[in-house]
Amino acid sequence: MKLHVVFVVAGVEYALPITFVLQMESFTGATPVPGSPPYVLGVVTLRGRVIPVLDLRRRFGLPAVAPTLDTRIIVTQVGGRVVAFCVDRAREVILLEPERLQPAPELLSERTIGFVNGTYTVGQRLLLLLDLPRISESDHDHEPHALPAADDHRRPALPG
Amino acid sequence: MTTSTDLKEFLTAYLVEAEEHVALANQRLLALEAAQRSGGHDARALREIFRSLHTIKGLSAMVGVEPVVAIAHRLEAFVRGYDRLGTAPPLHSTDVLLKGVQAIAQRLTALGRGEAASPPPPELLAELDRLDSTQAALVEQSGPELDLEPELLAKLAPFEVEQAVRGIRSGERGVIAEFFPSPDRAAQGFSINSVRERLSACAEIVRVLPRSLPVSPESPAGLSFVLILLTQASDEQVASAVGVKAATLKPFSTLRAVASPDVPDSIGAPAIDDEENDPLAAGVRRGIVRVDVNRLDDAMEELATLIVTRYRLARAVAALTARGVNTRELSDVVADNARQLRSLRAAIVRVRMVSVSDLLDRVPLLVRGLQRTTNRRVRVELEGTEAELDKSVSERLFPVLVHLVRNAVDHAIETPDERVRRKKPEEGLLRIACRAHSNTRLELTVSDDGRGIDRQAVARKAGRPVPETEAALLELLCMPGLSTRDVATTTSGRGMGMEIVKRVVIDELGGELELATELGTGTTFTLRVPLTIAIVDAFAFECAGQRFVVPVSTVDEIVEVDRAEAVAVPANADGRPNLDIILRRGHAVPVVRLANVFRMTHEPGTGQKAIIVRRAGLPIAFAVDRMLGQQEVVIRPMNDALVRVPGVSGATDLGDGRPTLVLDLVALGTSLGAGGSARSALT
Question: Which residues of B touch A134 (CB under 8 A)?
Fold first, then answer.
């Protein structure tokens, strides 16, 4: 059993192993960085470190919405890299059994293909397990549709 | 038993100090070897090697690292023997000594990783045993020695030493006089020849040693003669013969006469004073504190937060003032505080400065090792090592230096045979020079007299057109993935590590890199890097509603842009003019709106101020909306690939808790300046 953080982006629930999560905070704005990919909201300072904030809505190719009181940023760390994600809501931490991870159904959401490692079913709920390294990878083409197919999403993250 | 934390704390300090002495010992061993090769003896280096080994032994005994104690003890004993003999150890022993020091270094590294130090290598001990037996034979034959300065002693032939010793034994006094020739003295009848002549009446001249000195009023010729004399006459008589004051004469005597020959351990005792070499006492006497660089970083980090707080305070005061509160006294306090913080910053920056020599001194050992593996012969020249730079810059530069040096020895400098064929000296030359380029930058050049870089071959290898300029060639060499080994061996080129060199020098340190190379003659790399990083003076400004800062050092000037006087360049496709030209001291300066470059939405009509920077010597002006003043900022790097964009070198906190981007307008100007990309970036 592993602890996962559950968050919501555009009505869909996602899970992220808690071992990747450094902290969660309310979103109070980020400094835009001209020239960065459109899904990068900007940078925030966290404990003296300047880290990028990704808008998961835009990363999934969805229209951006104005932040609300529920908007959260989830600060994650993979390897030495620290990246924050802006999500609509994040309130829950639950235990999931890694053995029960199932492949993502084809038509689940074509927008998130390539960002999802699989799914968990918890009662009536469907949770998508996010492929964290993949999602914070910077690609040259910022169009989500142009991303490689799901079978390619396991290539190593953090280029360079 | 000591708690583990205490021991750990202590171990770190031990490792720092021990490693320093390892470095020192290595450096001196090389100096010793160099002197030996040229047929001389560097007695001072030998003495310093002894001291370092002695200190390592003492420190290691304190923390109970027995293997290091054992190795250091053996090496020290060997060196001490030759120090007492006053002669150089045999040339082949340097190798053994270097191996021994390396064995110590390996054990220190292991300790640093939390591993145990392995016992001394038996081969090393066996080699030392062999050396010791040679030495023992020498000690047997060696005669008594004199308590002259080691430099002087080293220059005396054995028969001269014998002559001096005999003289002193028979009741003469040993006296050293120093004569400074000059035109004035010559006019008074004192030349070295007349001095010799006069002395012959009252003293026996053992040896006259010329010594070169810096030119000064005292030694206008930059030269003096040290006269080693035996005499029965009074100091006054000798002094008048030489034409100096009696007080300047120095006596010397024999050592064995003082020391009992039966107690070998006291031979030379006055020179090597164990109390003086006590590692603890030594640290205190020099008044030097060694600090883990992380602690300095912590101090800098604390200062950074303090500076941020200062700006918050200043804002709060400004807000009060705006509300009509009388804040005069408060403002004075804030101003004082600002000044004090500035001094504190300068003080911390000074603490963090290390000598460039720390960096350069590691080169000879590196080259020595490379010569072996590559079958090259290389002479290293180091120049201008007085500059100081921030420890963190120095640490980043080291791998760069290693790459450049390795390339030079491995690829650029030819084998001795080939060099002879090419009518070059058999020994290659690697020259590293260092000088302050300005108050804020250091210039480091790494030159070799090797084959130079073959542009055609590099271009072929990279699958690109042949570069026309050295700058283009450098760019090609720094191309990621340009495989070096092939290029290097078939064409004399370089490439190995050049990508890293570029990344550190340009991307991480914000410095410059240049290349000059001539086929068959040699190559020079020039690096210009800032002496410090982290805190800089910067202008804050506003553009399209967002605040930015730009380091003062990169700004040429800040001007008003009078829209009426600016000449608009004909509109481009979307009909929006975005490039103006202004006249500045008779030069046309292009003005680009930063908001356009960054594609930020902004109201037309703004952009009243322009910041002029120079890229490759040519001015370019960036129009912004409003200048907000000058202040110190703490630059934090933005390392993540997602936000590493041209023109943005980092972020800072102006007191509002949010990052403010630090712009590199020079880089931005350069990225605009590259032909067509300028237009595309501007549309």
Answer: none
